[in-house]
Write a structure and sequence with these properties.
The chain is mainly alpha-helical. Helices cover 60% and strands 6% of the residues. It contains 8 helices and 3 strands, in the order H-E-E-H-E-H-H-H-H-H-H. A 3-stranded mixed sheet has the order 2-1-3. Strand 1 and strand 2 form a beta hairpin.
Length: 182
């Protein structure tokens, strides 16, 4: 699809990276590599959070089905959560431990902040994805379940438009429901 367009007009939008992480332009990158063209690469320098950038670029610029929007938002949310955890781990390694002052934002005292639970975090994630992707809460919940599942290929297939959320969710739900009927 892109190869003919890129071959005729060149790459109109550069591939966006942050360090060695590809932020935007996976398909453009693949098309350039297939054609043997050196793709233009730009380091991420936007003022908005990377997560917001990914959501804005991917959910707003293309004609996507609701399933695709939910899958893309769930993938971006899972990446964002993992990235925040990685950064907290790095920050925690710098601070804390014996004789070091701990970062108060990372380790709040009991009673000062509302305790977080996995159920509350999951509900807020589903709600956020539903709102951002403009899909139902049910579709967002299915996409989140796929993102948390062991096989992300199903979520990738939904994002690519080759599988529906319902079919992908049934595939991952089927083994667990059969296990209880032995």
């Amino acid at each position: 699809m892109f190869n003919g367009s890129i071959e005729a007009s060149g790459v109109l939008d550069p591939i966006v990276v942050q360090g060695d992480v590809l932020i935007d332009g996976r398909n453009r990158m693949k098309a350039c590599l297939d054609l043997g063209i050196e793709p233009p690469v730009k380091e991420y320098d936007e003022e908005i959070d990377v997560y917001r950038y990914i959501i804005n670029k991917n959910l707003r610029r293309r004609d996507l089905t609701p399933d695709q929007r939910a899958a893309i938002a769930a993938k971006a949310s899972a990446w964002h959560t993992a990235e925040r955890a990685r950064l907290r781990m790095i920050e925690g390694a710098k601070e804390g431990g014996r004789g070091h002052k701990k970062n108060p934002e990372m380790n709040s005292s009991p009673g000062l902040a509302e305790p977080k639970t996995r159920a509350k975090d999951a509900r807020s994630t589903v709600g956020q994805i539903a709102q951002e992707a403009k899909v139902s809460h049910h579709k967002a919940a299915q996409a989140v379940a796929l993102a948390k599942g062991p096989v992300s290929a199903h979520l990738d297939a939904v994002a690519a438009g080759t599988e529906t959320l319902r079919a992908a969710h049934q595939k991952i739900a089927a083994p667990s429901s059969k296990a209880g009927h032995r």
